[in-house]
Design brief:
This protein is of the alpha/beta class. It has a domain of 218 residues: NAD(P)-binding Rossmann-like Domain (Rossmann fold), CATH 3.40.50.720. Helix content is 38%, strand content 17%. The protein has nine helices and 13 strands. Strands 3-2-1-4-5-6-11 form a seven-stranded parallel β-sheet, sandwiched between helices. Strands 7-10 form a two-stranded parallel sheet. The chain has a two-stranded parallel ribbon with strand order 8-13. α1 crosses α6, α3 packs parallel to α4 and α5 crosses α9. Bound molecules: nicotinamide-adenine-dinucleotide (NAD) and uridine-5'-diphosphate (2 copies). The site of one uridine-5'-diphosphate has 14 residues, from α5 and β8.
Amino acid sequence: MKKVLVTGGAGFLGSHLCDRLLQDGHDVLCVDNYFTGTKANIAHLRGHPRFEAMRHDVTFPLYVEVDEIYNLACPASPVHYQFDPVQTTKTSVHGAINMLGLARRLGARILQASTSEVYGDPEVHPQTESYWGRVNPIGVRSCYDEGKRCAETLFFDYWRQHRLQIKVVRIFNTYGPRMYERDGRVVSNFIVQALRGEDITIYGDGSQTRSFCYVDDLIEAMVRMMATDDGFTGPVNVGNPSEFTMLELAQKVVALTGSRSQLVFKPLPSDDPRQRQPDISLARQALKGWEPTIALDDGLTRTIDYFRTVLATDR
Ligand code: NAD
Ligand code: UDP
Ligand code: UDP
């Protein structure tokens, strides 16, 4: 049993990670400032003898005693990370420095939730870890993309300079229950719109692609990454390589919900990547044969069930 810190633990991915670590018998400290996360995501863990939640902003130093750190704190939806872009960069950069400083003092392993956004709008397809990316440094997505890139730099410098045991995963679009209903990301938007019978908002012509991973597959990869040998740092792409256009996604959501919603087309946000698909060869090999197991239709069905319950109790 280890003492494990999860920053961003009340968020979508973080709350599933807390569940998994508790199931594995660990003692979990969840740190979150509740910017995009909610207490509802961890309400079922209240009173659990090995779970503790702490309100804290990772841009400020944190003095606790743990064996491992998963650093997930950072808004992930473009709508939310662009709401206060300066705070987004601070969260990635100051947050990384503080968590790395904490890991250094404790000699703890630390895993960074990085992102496919480090590849920007990629010219290489599918994306491999060796690709350096094509990122606009001054656009509306830069606070997130460059913040996460700088966090990776800090992780690798702490590794080179202080011999810290770092693990970096580059997460591709992941979806599932506990996404915030007003999160603004495409899967939650389409499902909520379809269930409410509202228009489904496709940005641009819907021909841009993403590759969607179900949350359980992603959490499995993160836990396996933390358990890899000392010498292995990553970065490792984690995601599901099945690639879809946003039009295909909208059609699937309409079919699976049985909705009568219409598809409507809205302007494409600036710097929106055209295509995205992970090459997961490295993950397959380094994470002991890890492979996504949940197909999009199956994962969407589970996510739709979740949102049906949320929307029924909400109003
Ligand atoms: P989320 O918005 O649901 O979770 C982020 C959590 O971090 C929230 O609980 C939020 O309140 C918390 N947070 C934000 N700023 C903070 C701060 N300064 N101090 C403390 N807590 C703070 O998003 P998510 O999808 O669960 O993403 C989790 C992590 O995974 C993020 O770092 C994100 O960049 C990364 N990621 C996610 C995806 C995805 O598709 N879900 C893809 C790539 C990377
Ligand atoms: N820090 C922290 N908790 C700790 C140790 C450090 O939050 O237990 C923060 C502190 O703000 C510090 C930063 O991590 O400035 C980086 O720490 P490091 O030891 O790498 O460098 P320092 O800034 O102390 O020279
Ligand atoms: N998108 C869309 N309609 C929405 C929300 C998003 O068509 O209501 C598009 C968005 O323009 C992008 C894709 O879906 O091309 C994925 O967007 P998301 O915000 O989920 O993630 P990211 O762009 O960070 O991959």
